[in-house]
Predict the structure.
Amino acid sequence: MHVKHDLNEKIADLISFDDFLKVDIRIGQIVSAKEFPEARKPAYILVIDFGPVVGEKKSSAQITDLYDCQTLVGKQVAAVVNFPPRQIGPIKSEVLTLGFSDENGRVVLFASDRNVPNGSRLH
C-alpha cells in the first residue's frame, strides 16, 4: 500500500505514548521478491522474515520505481506487523512495508543503517 503525502501537509493529530506502543513496527529481512502483475499499480510481492516470534510474512509493496527484485533480497526493511491482513488481488498482504516518498513521489524503503536481529521492534 502506498499513500502519497504532500510535504506541506500539517502534522498529524497528537497521540499518546500508549497509542504509539499499539503500532508494532519491526525489522525483517526480505527473503524473496517477485513481480506482482495482478496489482492495479506496479508492485512486488515480498516475503519478509521477521524472526522466530512473527515469522515470515507477505507484503505487497509499490516500490518498483527505485528497486528491482534481485537487489531487494537480503535487504532489511521496517514494517507494521500488527495490522489485519489485506486482500490485494490474489494475495493477502500481511504486513505494511514502510517507506518515505522522495521529491518525485517514489517510495524509499525505511531501513536500519546497521543490521539488527530480525524481529527487533522499533522504539
User: Anything to note?
Assistant: Residues 25-109 form a domain with the OB fold (Dihydrolipoamide Acetyltransferase, E2P) fold (CATH 2.40.50.140). The longest strand covers residues 25-35. The chain has a mean pLDDT of 93.
